[in-house]
């Protein structure tokens, strides 16, 4: 089974590619988390988690979902993380998670995809984004081949900088940066509620046909990128910046 969590479509696209190539079932963790559903029942022998990189680790909401879910036996667990730059030493913390859940850890692959974190960085325009994805395709193919052959995924070398990014910086990043206080919608908002529907944490409610953000946010950037009128901003950091959504796969039109 291929589990994925995706705010703007990168993970969804990679998961879709893997699922089609391996003839494996897809499971959207966005929907599982949004609908308060944990995993239970028969556990597949092979689980593939395709995830974005949040502060140089897997998203906390996904880690919490895995920890709370009930898996049986010792399933193989492959992790495929996409990022705008690097995943740091994320694998160290994934190995720890796998030990807790008694998963057989089969590696963590890093795939560089277009940057989408416009709360801090600039996203590429459509042409540049497609070029970045084209460069990522051979890595996606390699990951598929390694999983199909039952090999452990090739990992990037862990270094001092990665240890800092995934360790103390991650710990500081969440309370300091990851919140919804700076999201707002301007007068271009048409009250379509696409942002609320896209939020995997149900953190957005519509009040007088305008979105209101609450205190649960994982900075997935789904809301700000799905808005059809580009009415949503994040403070002043997002003003005038491209909104990136993966141009391929099931989320491109959502």
From TrEMBL:
Q: Which GO terms describe its molecular function?
A: 4 iron, 4 sulfur cluster binding; metal ion binding
**Required cofactor(s):** [4Fe-4S] cluster
Task: Tell me the InterPro entries matching this sequence.
Answer: 4Fe4S_Fe-S-bd (IPR017896), 4Fe4S_Fe_S_CS (IPR017900), EFR1-like (IPR047964), Flavoprotein-like_sf (IPR029039), PSI_iron-sulfur_center (IPR050157)
- Where's the 4Fe-4S ferredoxin-type domain? 180-209, 214-237
Q: Which UniProt keywords apply?
A: 4Fe-4S, Iron, Iron-sulfur, Metal-binding
Please name the Pfam families in this protein's record: Fer4_7 (PF12838)
Name the domain of life: Bacteria
- Where do transmembrane segments lie in this chain? none
Query: What is the protein's known function?
Result: Ferredoxins are iron-sulfur proteins that transfer electrons in a wide variety of metabolic reactions.
Annotated NCBIfam families: ferrodoxin_EFR1
Annotated protein name in UniProt: Ferredoxin
Q: In which organism is this protein found? A: Mediterraneibacter hominis
């Amino acid at each position: 089974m291929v589990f994925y969590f995706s705010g703007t479509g990168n993970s969804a696209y990679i998961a879709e590619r893997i699922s089609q190539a391996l003839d494996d079932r897809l499971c959207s963790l966005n929907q599982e988390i949004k609908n308060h559903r944990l995993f239970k029942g028969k556990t597949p022998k092979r689980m593939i988690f395709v995830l974005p990189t949040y502060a140089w680790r897997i998203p906390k909401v996904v880690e919490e979902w895995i920890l709370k879910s009930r898996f049986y036996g010792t399933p193989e667990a492959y992790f495929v993380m996409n990022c705008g730059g690097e995943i740091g030493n994320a694998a160290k913390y994934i190995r720890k998670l796998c030990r807790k859940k008694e998963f057989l850890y089969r590696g963590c692959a890093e795939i560089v995809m277009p940057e989408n974190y416009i709360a801090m960085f600039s996203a590429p325009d459509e042409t540049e984004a497609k070029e970045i994805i084209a460069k990522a395709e051979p890595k996606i193919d390699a990951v598929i081949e390694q999983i199909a052959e039952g090999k452990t995924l090739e990992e990037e070398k862990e270094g001092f900088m990665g240890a800092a990014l995934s360790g103390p910086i991650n710990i500081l990043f969440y309370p300091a940066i990851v919140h919804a206080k700076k999201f707002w919608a301007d007068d271009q908002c048409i009250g379509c509620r696409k942002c609320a529907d896209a939020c995997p944490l149900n953190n957005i409610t519509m009040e007088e046909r305008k979105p209101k953000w609450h205190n649960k946010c994982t900075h997935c950037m789904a809301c700000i990128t799905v808005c059809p009128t580009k009415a949503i901003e994040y403070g002043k950091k997002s003003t005038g910046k491209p909104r990136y959504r993966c141009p391929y796969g099931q989320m491109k039109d959502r």
